[in-house]
Design a protein that fits this description.
The protein is an all-beta fold and about 120 residues long. Helices cover about 0% and strands about 50% of the residues. Strands 1, 2, 3, 5, 6, 7 and 9 form a seven-stranded antiparallel beta sheet that branches. A three-stranded antiparallel beta sheet has the order 8-4-10, with no helix packed on it.
Amino acid sequence: MTVASNAQLATIVSLAGEVWESLPFEPFRPGVTIHRIVTGKPELALLKYEPGARVPLHRHTDMETIFVLSGSQSDENGTYRTGDLVINPKGSVHRVWSDDGCVVLLQWTAPVEVLSDLNDGGG
């Protein structure tokens, strides 16, 4: 269900239920896969975290918006469950992990700056 970005037409993507389960995902980071919905600026994608998956310490170079579709995702500020909306402002720094696995809808306009690897004991 990848949709090309087109400023002249509305993009409609149904994520009702768990329709995302049948979508093709590709490797993104260890334990995390991605299904890109819109490419360009902004980017819009689904990320699927396997149980125990972690993303290293990173800084957001612009705003990022996350909507948890299934499971739970955590960072140093808390744990976010199905239905939670998380807005990480430009300049925010954190690690991300999912103890039980999750699927999130992620929107971003610029790549993150990775500040450490997964072996620094965080998360």
